[in-house]
Design brief:
CATH architecture of chain A: Orthogonal Bundle
Order of helices and strands of chain A: HHH
CATH superfamily of one domain in chain B: NADH-ubiquinone/plastoquinone oxidoreductase chain 6, subunit NuoJ
Distance between the termini of chain B: 61 Å
CATH architecture of one domain in chain B: Up-down Bundle
Number of helices of chain B: 6
Strand content of chain A: under 5%
Helix content of chain B: 55-70%
CATH topology of one domain in chain B: Four Helix Bundle (Hemerythrin (Met), subunit A)
Number of strands of chain B: 0
Number of domains of chain A: 1
Radius of gyration of chain A: 17 Å
Structural class of chain A: mainly alpha
Largest interface: A-B, 72 and 82 residues
CATH class of one domain in chain B: Mainly Alpha
Radius of gyration of chain B: 21 Å
Distance between the termini of chain A: 57 Å
Order of helices and strands of chain B: HHHHHH
Number of strands of chain A: 0
Largest sheet of chain A: none
Oligomer: heterodimer
């Protein structure tokens, strides 16, 4: 049986990864890195889901984490397509300059 | 076991800082590969073998290769080191405060109050959602891929099918966004 004392460390790591990802979204200007930080936040949520599922003796956390992974994969595909399109239009890759949606 | 947990937790935390603080985009991507790999190790230690495989195949395999491919294609310039402006201060404060609060809350609320920490047995009669019945310890035994699949293809079949629609929509959207305009 797993040691219950590990649980706060796992949740703490999850909160840490999530807030570091949020900090990255705040301070980084490269949209590729911003997407990586969003991946970091999704992974943090996955860790919390799996840890809760493990300590509550339920596999539903794993199922939700699986759904989150699928959604993250779809999000990365569309987001990177948008970034390549912005690059092709000759715009500079900087989220501070990309604040309006017109071409 | 605990040592493995400690190593994976520390490496995941350090490499996540590497994602945010690296100046070169490719170093951020490689740090994220390490973070994702350490999370896969944690999933394996938490007895989520299926998610361990999915994490390695989809995240470390597909998503990160896509990221590195895009980084190599666009070859963005190195950014300046993030300055300590208002946004950075807010971010650092958020990291410290939220991590500390969650850690303290989890430690005091769950670990030291085992009476309030009820585990619902999988397949137990009290839980109406578990029609796919397994003995209570099934989740904790090795090979719980079977229990995950049992839930995924019975109670969670509709969300599972909807994710396939989501992937189709994302693929069509990516093709539409990256096509060359004909004019």
């Amino acid at each position: 049986m797993l040691n219950l004392n590990l649980f706060p460390y796992l949740l703490g790591l999850s909160a840490f990864l999530f807030t570091v990802g949020a900090m990255g979204v705040l301070i980084r200007r490269n949209p590729i890195v911003v997407f990586m930080c969003i991946e970091l936040m999704l992974n943090a949520a996955n860790l919390a889901l799996v840890a809760y599922g493990r300590f509550l003796n339920s596999e539903e956390g794993q199922i939700f984490a699986f759904m989150v992974i699928v959604v993250a994969a779809a999000e990365v595909v569309v987001g990177l397509a948008l970034i390549t399109q912005i690059f092709r239009l000759g715009r500079e890759l900087d989220v501070d300059d990309l604040s309006e949606m017109k071409e | 076991m605990t040592v493995l947990f400690a190593i994976a937790i520390v490496l995941a935390a350090v490499s996540s800082l590497g994602v945010v603080l690296s100046r070169q985009t490719i170093y951020s991507a490689l740090s994220l590969v390490l973070t994702v790999g350490m999370l896969a190790v944690l999933f394996l230690l938490l007895n989520a073998q299926f998610l361990f495989a999915v994490q390695l195949i989809i995240y470390a395999g597909a998503v990160m290769v896509l990221f590195i491919f895009i980084v190599a294609l666009l070859s963005p310039d190195a950014e300046d080191r993030p300055t300590l402006d208002l946004r950075a201060v807010i971010g650092i404060l958020g990291v410290v405060v939220v991590t500390g609060l969650v850690f303290v809350a989890a430690r005091n609320g769950i670990t030291y109050n085992t009476n309030g920490f009820h585990a619902v047995a999988v397949g137990g009669a009290s839980n109406p959602y578990h029609t796919f019945s397994f003995p209570p310890d099934a989740v904790n035994n090795a090979g719980n891929v079977q229990t995950v699949a049992g839930q995924l293809f019975t109670n969670y079949l509709l969300p599972f099918e909807i994710t396939s629609m989501l992937l189709l929509v994302a693929a069509i959207g990516a093709v539409y966004l990256t096509r060359r305009s004909s004019q």
